[in-house]
Amino acid sequence: MRFQKLIQSSGALLLCALSLATAQAATGGEPAALIQVDVASCLAATAADDMDKVATACAAVIDNEKTAKGDLVKALIARAALYARHDQIDRAIADDSRALSLDPTLADIFNARGELWLKKGDKPKAVQDFGATLKIDPNHEKAKANHKAMAREIERIGAQMAVAGKPSFNCARARRAVEKAICGNRELADLDREIYGSHLRVLREAQSPAETRKIQREQDDFIARRNAGYGRPGFDLKKAMQDRLQQINGVDGY
């Protein structure tokens, strides 16, 4: 009799526990199991380059707060790559940035975002991302090539900025009116420096001493005409300098 009562009591407890679990599920309590979000359709749509399907399939994964972190990163990376292929650079950067905020160890994504910054013309941010890639993976070949190219470009830009508005001669020693005019005008100063640089180039390329002397004579004649003509009615210093630059470099520029 006591055994029968024990069974009845245990059954009541089990029924109560099941009822409680059902009530919790119905009223927003702990779910019986985690809902799995399918990332496969998003990845398939991006692989097929189907923008229409991506808009819904990837959004269903990315905008679902129950998506597992790993699947969310995969979906963001896939959609970013598709956006990049279709030149939707800002959207691609946004997805890559979110993926990197979730997992800052993704060397390939830092490099990919760096290339996107480069397309936007933001070279400092591009260099920063290429550098971040190399911190994670010092042997990342694409990032090494990108970083090296950008370092050279930034160095070149820095060198140009350092001499911008400065002629080929020392303005502190300028005595002639034409020299002072060149020093006082950034555009003329840049033209003078370009003329001088191009002149040095053709001198280096000269095939014989006679050709070298001829090139130097032409430059000396130009400077003499420039000095004598400046200040006279009808003399256009800027045009004279532009003509000389074109004469040195040829019609095609170089």
From TrEMBL:
<feature type="signal peptide">
    <location>
        <begin position="1"/>
        <end position="25"/>
    </location>
</feature>
<protein>
    <submittedName>
        <fullName>Uncharacterized protein</fullName>
    </submittedName>
</protein>
<feature type="repeat" description="TPR">
    <location>
        <begin position="107"/>
        <end position="140"/>
    </location>
</feature>
<dbReference type="InterPro" id="IPR011990">
    <property type="entry name" value="TPR-like_helical_dom_sf"/>
</dbReference>
<feature type="repeat" description="TPR">
    <location>
        <begin position="73"/>
        <end position="106"/>
    </location>
</feature>
<dbReference type="InterPro" id="IPR019734">
    <property type="entry name" value="TPR_rpt"/>
</dbReference>
<keyword id="KW-0802">TPR repeat</keyword>
<keyword id="KW-0732">Signal</keyword>
